[in-house]
Amino acid sequence: MASLCGRIVLAAAKRNVTYTPVRFCKMMNDPIEHATGIEKRELLAKQAGNPDPFDMRVFKRGPGTKDSPNLIPSAFDARLVGCVCEEDQTYVQWMWLHQGQPKRCECGHWFKLVEKAPV
Q1: For the chain, percent of residues with pLDDT exceeding 70
Q2: In which residues is Zn(2+) bound (predicted)?
Q3: Residues annotated as binding site?
Q4: Side-chain half-sphere of 78: how many Cα atoms within 13 Å?
Q5: Residue 5 belongs to a domain
Q6: Any residues with CB less than 8 A from the CB of 111 and at least 6 apart, and which?
């Protein structure tokens, strides 16, 4: 009797399950429609033509004097910056930059944080 009940329940469960074949799906939905929060703002910025909305790219150092320091954009009051002092150096010299205070690296280059609109 127990095996008969088990077969009936199994058959009923199989009958009520429906499958959607993949062949009816013509295309994938747009990821912007599903994104929310900061991910959506990042995707919209990339769509608008800004490939690096968070300014994570590597900046080439300019003259780096005290009068014309290397300008580093940031939407916050402080930012961690890495400086490769020499071309063949195998490590990065890290330092914190704070808004309004230019800072000198050990190699002699000056850096200054400038305000940037947040994403």
Answers
A1: 80
A2: 83, 85, 105, 107
A3: 83, 85, 105, 107
A4: 4
A5: no
A6: 64, 69, 70, 72, 81, 83, 95, 97, 102, 103, 104, 105
Residues flagged as binding site for Zn(2+):
83, 85, 105, 107
C-alpha–C-alpha distance, residues 12 and 85, integer Å: 72
Provide mean pLDDT across the span 80-91: 91
**Which CATH number belongs to the domain containing residue 59 in this structure?**
2.60.11.10
pTM: 0.64
Helix, strand, coil percentages, rounded to 5, for the chain: 30, 20, 50
The model's confidence at residue 118, banded by pLDDT at 50, 70 and 90, is confident
The count of domains in the chain is 1
Q: Are 111 and 83 in contact (CB under 8 A)?
A: yes
How many residues are given for the chain?
119
Domain for residue 10, yes or no? Answer: no
